TrEMBL record, chain A:
Keyword Aminoacyl-tRNA synthetase included in the entry's annotation: no
Domain Thioredoxin-like fold: 27-121
Compositionally biased spans, kind Polar residues: 241-265
Keywords assigned: Membrane, Mitochondrion, Mitochondrion outer membrane, Transmembrane, Transmembrane helix
Domain Metaxin glutathione S-transferase: start-end pairs: 174-232
Protein name: Metaxin
Protein's job: Involved in transport of proteins into the mitochondrion.
Principal location listed in the UniProt entry: mitochondrion
Family per similarity comment: Belongs to the metaxin family.
Record's subcellular location: Mitochondrion outer membrane
Gene Ontology, cellular component aspect: mitochondrial outer membrane
CDD domains named in the record: GST_C_Metaxin (cd03193)
Membrane-spanning intervals of the chain: 289-307
UniProtKB/TrEMBL annotation, chain B:
Primary location recorded for the protein, binned into one broad class: mitochondrion
Residue ranges occupied by any Bacterial surface antigen (D15) domain in the UniProt entry: 189-533
Superkingdom field: Eukaryota
Keywords annotated in UniProt: Membrane, Plastid, Plastid outer membrane, Transmembrane, Transmembrane beta strand
Polar residues biased stretches: 418-428
POTRA domain ranges (all copies): 81-159
The family this protein is said to belong to: Belongs to the SAM50/omp85 family.
Any Pfam family the entry gives: POTRA
Compartments it resides in: Mitochondrion outer membrane; Plastid, Chloroplast outer membrane
Membrane-protein topology: Multi-pass membrane protein
Bias (Acidic residues): 24-52
Protein name from the UniProt record: Outer membrane OMP85 family protein
UniProt region (Disordered), positions on chain: 1-63, 403-428
Amino acid sequence: MEDGNEEREKLTLVARKPCFGLPTACPTCLPVYVYLRFAHLPLNLEFNLIHPDSDQIPFVESGNYVAYNNERGGVIWSLKEDGIVDLDSDVRGIPEWVSTKAMVESWLADAVMYELWVGSDGKSAYKIYYSDLPWPIGKILYLKQVRAVKQLLGITSENAERREEEIYRRSTSAYGALSSRLGEESFFFENRPTSLDAVVLGHVLFTLHALPETSLLRSKLLDHTNLVKFAESHKAEYIDANSSASVPESDPSTSASRRGPSQWSSKPKSKPKREKTEEEKKFRRRTKYFLVTQLVAVLVFLSLLGGSNDAEVELEDDDDALNYD
Amino acid sequence: MAVPTESHPHLGQPENPNLSDPSPEPDDLDDFEAEIDEEDNDESEEDDEESEPITPEAQMRVDRVSMESLFKRLSTERVPVRVHDVLIKGNTKTKDFVIEAEVEALLKNATTVQQLLQAAGVANARLQQLDIFDSVNITLDAGPPELPGTANVVVEVSEAKNPLTGDVGIFSKPEARSWSLEGSLKLKNLFGYGDLWDGSVAYGWGQASEVSAGVSVPKFKALATPLTARISLLSQDWLKFSSYKEKALGLSLGLLSIGNHDLSYNLSWRTLTDPSQMASHSVRRQLGHGLLSALKYTFKIDRRNSPLRPTRGYAFLSTTHISGLVPDNRSLRFIRQEFDLRYAVPLGFYHAALNFGISGGFIFPWGRGFLNTPSYLPERFFLGGNSSPVCTLRGPTSILGFKARGLGPAEPRRQERGNSNNESSDASTGMDFIGGDLAATAFADLSFDLPLRVFREAGIHGHAFACTGSLTKLTENAHRELSFQKLRESFRCSAGFGIIVPTKLFRMEVNYCYILKQHEHDQGKTGVQFSFSSPL
């Protein structure tokens, strides 16, 4: 019991499950993990596999102290307020830092959310969030989450294409801005890691490793090689060096973690998808017309048959009479 | 001639007196046969009554004499009879086999008239119990004239005119673990299979609420046992005690219900959340979704003379709960066993009785890595609460004197960083009771009548009691540190006396409890307390 208490006193981050070669594969948990790694704090990493729809995760606990993600602006802000760790003390006053952070936390976060739940086939999302829940629960929660994301992003059946274009356009300009801000440096501001670096690193690692190769967002990111290099070098230094047993290579099918920057490939298939939806719509319209005509024909036939019933009966009688003859 | 009314049998003509008949009195038998001959002659000549030269008064006298001798015979001898056919009338919607299944075997097994009358009474009661008929009449009639010694039974039912009934009441439901105010609508016999559909809404004492709908079918085709199915959405609030809220969407099927045995299957989706964000460490680790697929077997014997104030008899209840019956190893897997034993001894004076009881239970997970996984939090045992252990047969749950969930393993809740200087302000309320894996309770209760007659007539009586209980953790390797010494030290005790007021719906007690022994974080309070229990 005493060992357990000592364990509980250490700083523990509870996040979602690790996969795709990342210590935690959830896009909200990964930046927090990276931030704590930047701060060189001794960290325990634990996982919650059964509560995918909770906004309390990720949370940091130490003894009886807990910093939830849905309080006071997030875990990173709570850690600063409670005096545990603060990497942004020098840069918080720089307006460019503030606006870059705001851009990343709104445009790029929306883009990742869109790509994960709406834009792709959902296999990545299923693997990260629902693979440890029994099938019926996982399926129902996934469908609920897709609907919630569409509501959050303001996507309806009428404006779906327009919103998608807008989201991709914004992410393209965000990547361009980040790339030019970073240049050849290793950090964005003052050559030191800040929470902005943690958030960007988390986003880039997630987009490169967890999204499928057909993802449009991923292919847009691959256009900016300095961002990819930034991600790969910091991953090697801060994450893989500390990982030891906490990052299981449990997925033999994705060998993404072994690739270097020159080996990233992308197969965007957005255009064929758009044509397909138009074809689908035409097909559905034609099917509807066909079914309606069939129904009308059946109704007409029945009404004619009902009217001419007597005539047919007489015909039969005549036939019988003929037979008897 | 006087045709017998519905409750009187009319025998077919016995041509050959039964040789196995124990003591036939020849005179009576000859008279009887002669009278029956006359009556049969009367029956065959339906059209021509006036050919018989008997006055109406004489006819009545003859009939009365024959009836009297018939009754005399029925009361003294075993009059053999065989049931030829069971006719069912009056059922427009109900399927024939539903009624036949309840009564046919019973009636056809009767070999004498007395047995037949008894069987008819039992069959009537069974049909009334189906709760789908307004009235049931069973008539015994003569069999076909060519088959002597036979009788036909006519079952006439009148189906309920209004299939929809509503009900509001206070009940105790095992799912809610406390009792509740419930409103329900019942739809009877919708498909003619004797099916009862009901939908109900219940609001419970411990901030529990439930919406459910169910169907029960008494006998479906060849199955010998009634089937029930129920879908329910249950939500319970334990924030004050254990910092979590529980929501369960479940389907339960009653598979077998024969005699003392009961087997049911339950499939439910459970979600634990913590909107207060103050949960302790163990509770935080258990928040989330889970799938429970479990079989529950209950064995119950209750031979006490009264569930509200038992003075004689014993009762035994054993419940076994095995969960994790789907091949998916991500569902919740545990075994839970609890039992209750009660014994009441009458003492002879002042209507006094001594009641003893002992209850125990344990829960343990199974499956891969079961030695290191914690047990499922809502299914653990929690002791405390204000229900009397004398009436309630629900496993180890109650010790008088302690608040609900007021004893056992407890963990400190989350502490705000800013309040780390004011530790004392949070100390008393900042504990979550997380329940235990091994529970045991025992009690002794002496109940007696009060000297005033007005109390005795109202059923108000007094009692003195002593209870003890213990709750310990077994999982996550805690069982290695458990020794006999530690187990003995983990027992808490309380004693007291009080007055019991039984009402039609529940049993109310006013008790003075004195806590003899409690542990550091337990919430036992010495003083006057009210306690409510219902005998279900």
